[in-house]
Design goal:
This protein has 331 residues and is of the alpha+beta class. The protein is built from six helices and eleven strands. It has two domains: 192 residues, Acetylcholine Binding Protein, Chain: A (Distorted Sandwich), CATH 2.70.170; 120 residues, Neurotransmitter-gated ion-channel transmembrane domain (Methane Monooxygenase Hydroxylase, Chain G, domain 1). The chain is elongated, with a radius of gyration of 31 Å.
């Protein structure tokens, strides 16, 4: 009986600690310390240490939303944790942090826990240059870049966390799979001789290949197949060929403009979809030149001469397509 009572008390104690664990953390508000007081406290700690103050940074990503492909923006919410064996965060709050590539909307729920860790929840919009080389198959790399404000590398140094930064298991982005997290710390120089410790964590998200293929690439393959099909028509069916060419060209232009022109910013390079559409335009151009030659050099009902020109242009078509592919993918 006594053992059962004792075990019951132990279980109740554990549950109490687990449920009310935030109570044992000290909440820090922005009003507790001014930036001047923070700086003075950090300088005092620097005077005690022989080297820079070392801060370990860990980020736990909660949500990604509002991805702006035109401007390269994306909204994030995450927990950021700073840990240091050299600092008592209740006496010396963490240094002011600059989110280099972000515009912070709010920082909430500041806590200092018993194991000397400072934790806060951050909401903000971040920016980067997306790589659209393989569009519509996208590999989105979403970085968060962090630096200390005012303090140089010889004063404050960031280090990677012992356990890599992770994402919430429930995090999803429509049309994308989570591909992994990359972290690094560098000494960043602004060109004025001053180095600042910079922590960079990058979250990789990849498009679902099947959906990207069906929406962005399959229509181009169908249109290209229709162009090749024109060689299977009777050599004298010029009117049908012209109608099909016009239809494919209009469909291709609308598809290209609506899918790439309105979805992406102006780029200094060609995307995968741009290259495939350029190849389609070249294929259509060769067929149009063939019809022009047939109309100019033969009678419309002269099947023999029309067929001769058609056979020559099949070879020309193949050569031009191969050269175009080499040129498009070489540059």
């Amino acid at each position: 009986m006594k053992n059962n009572l004792k075990n019951g008390l132990i279980i109740c104690s554990v549950c109490f600690i687990f449920l009310f664990e935030p109570v044992f953390a000290t909440e820090i508000t922005d009003e507790d310390f001014s930036q001047k007081e923070v700086k003075e406290a950090i300088i005092k700690d620097l005077e005690k240490e022989e080297g820079p103050l070392i801060y370990e940074i860990d980020i736990y990503l909660l949500d990604v939303s509002d991805i702006d492909y035109v401007n390269g923006g994306y909204s994030l919410s995450f927990w950021i944790t700073l840990a240091s064996d050299q600092i008592d965060f209740e006496e010396t709050p963490p240094p002011q942090i600059d989110f280099v590539n972000g515009k912070i909307d709010s920082i909430e729920q500041h806590y200092v826990t018993n194991d000397n860790r400072y934790t806060a929840k951050v909401y903000g919009t971040f920016f980067t240059n997306f790589d659209y080389t393989n569009y519509p198959i996208l590999d989105l790399k979403l970085p968060i870049i962090i630096e200390p404000v005012q303090f140089k590398t010889d004063e404050i140094k960031f280090v990677l966390p012992k356990i890599p930064s992770t994402v919430d298991p429930g995090l999803t982005i429509s049309g994308f799979n989570y591909g992994g997290t990359n972290e690094k710390v560098i000494d960043y120089n602004y060109g004025d001789g001053l180095d600042f410790s910079r922590f960079i964590v990058t979250y990789d998200f990849e498009t679902h290949f099947v959906s990207a293929f069906m929406i962005g690439l399959f229509p181009i393959i169908i249109m290209a197949g229709a162009v090749v099909f024109l060689f299977g028509l009777k050599a004298t069916n010029h009117d049908i060929k012209v109608e099909m060419i016009v239809g494919i060209l209009i469909a291709g232009i609308f598809f290209h403009v609506l899918d790439v022109g309105e979805s992406l910013p102006p780029l200094e390079y060609l995307t995968l979809e741009d290259k495939l559409m350029t190849l389609l335009y070249v294929m259509l151009g060769v067929i149009m030149i063939e019809i022009l030659f047939q109309r100019r050099l033969t009678d419309e009902d002269d099947l023999h001469h029309n067929l001769k020109i058609d056979k020559k242009f099949r070879i020309i078509f193949t050569v031009v397509v191969v050269i175009t592919i080499i040129l498009l993918w070489a540059f």
